[in-house]
Design goal:
By secondary structure, this protein is mainly β. Helix content is 11%, strand content 36%.
Amino acid sequence: MVAVVCGVLLCGGVSFASTITFDDVTIPPENNNLLQIQNGYAGLNWDHLWFLRQDPALYTSGGVGMGAVSDSQMAVNEYWYPYATISAPVGQTFVLGSGSFMAAWPGESMYVNVTGFLNGGQVLSQTFLFTSTEHTFVDFSAFVAGGGPAVVDNVIFTTVDSAGNAYYTDATGAHPIGGQFVMDNLTVPEGGLTAAMLGMAIFQLALIRRKFQE
């Protein structure tokens, strides 16, 4: 059961970014096409996520070879970690809009669960199948209870198998190890919350609270 925190629902505004393309940071040549995403990029906090530059000299297929949409860079979750998170600074929120996703490595397909939270209450949770052969476009508002924008302060991406378990484990079976996916053109609507969006966020949490009280 998910505990829904009532009280002050929204503090602060939306992080000011529109479409996060991951192309506006230079990856040093000596970094082998990878650079860790630092907190504060696009006004958000990032955990276990890296910039990845698409290099046709190395790969021409899979997400690593064709996952970039806007230019030549994208984000990839950290190797061997089963989860990655994007969160707002303390006291702030953002709207998770949409994005393009692929399994990172040629020949792979994987399930990724995306769970969004607002003040500790779960506002969306959906598992998607991403392949290494085509881009999967996800509009997160379609998976919010009651519809409307996905107003969140924390989003967790977890690689899972078809049964919802950690993607796979190490040789001992004790430690979950995540598969890798790439994402690009993540939209985070620009500007502050409108009155309609605020009302929708309150309505969404009310629906979720009612569901778990039944």
